[in-house]
Amino acid sequence: MMKGIDVSENNGCVDWEAVAAAGYEFAIVRLGYGHGHLDSNFYKNINGAKKAGLKLGVYYYSYATNESDAEYEADYIVKTLEDCGLNSSNLEMGVWIDEEDDGWRQRNGLDLSPDGLQTITNMVTLTINKLWDAGLQPAGVYCNFDWLYNHIDMSQTGGAGLWIASPGKIEEGPGVSCMLWQYSFKEKINGQEFDADITGDGWDG
User: Distance between CA 95 and CA 31 in Å, rounded?
Assistant: First the structure.
């Protein structure tokens, strides 16, 4: 079992040495979001976490509302990782597509009713297949229980990993088989607050 954090530009300047000293073993860094927007702290966070000796992963916050959008996002992820020399050998914690909605996707045409489940599932599957085709392993989906049960049919994804977001007590577990579990949105490390994660029963890395 390993503990880690996930970060984006919203966390500001991260003291990676403090994170490592507190016993966290990995970092999953936001690569970007939407239609080709690079997280402004992506390189800083990747380099800082690497220098501190943490295992690395990346995630991408999707704003896709159709398969064409999803394909663009997947290609952007692959190209950006290729350009900066990141691959399965140095992304031990995997590559993840973040499936949720802050309201923008629904306002711009994404159907979050039961009728939209197949569209979202198709977008997820397309993305994961492109990551796999690029040799990126593991690859999977970050989501909460609402999206897991109501918006994505994971059985159609061909074995994509699951990173579940569900704050709770570590000793009680996430309540579902998963590779990663985001168990806290308010983990304090040296006075700074982070989302915190732990490897689940499906982790084989």
Answer: 10
Distance (Å) of CA 67 to CA 100, 115, 139, 191? 16, 15, 18, 41
CA torsion sign for 44, 50, 53, 57 is: positive
DSSP H or E run through 50: helix 42-51
Counting Cβ atoms within 10 Å, is residue 9 exposed (0-12), middle (13-18) or buried (19+)?
Answer: middle
Chain-wide mean pLDDT for the chain? 97
d(CA 120, CA 138): 20
Neighbours of 13 (CB within 10 A): 10
Amino acid identity of residue 123, one-letter, is: M
Q: What is the DSSP letter of 42?
A: H
The answer, as to whether pTM is greater than 0.90, is: yes
Phi-psi region of 128 (alpha: psi -120 to 50; beta: other; left: phi over 0): alpha
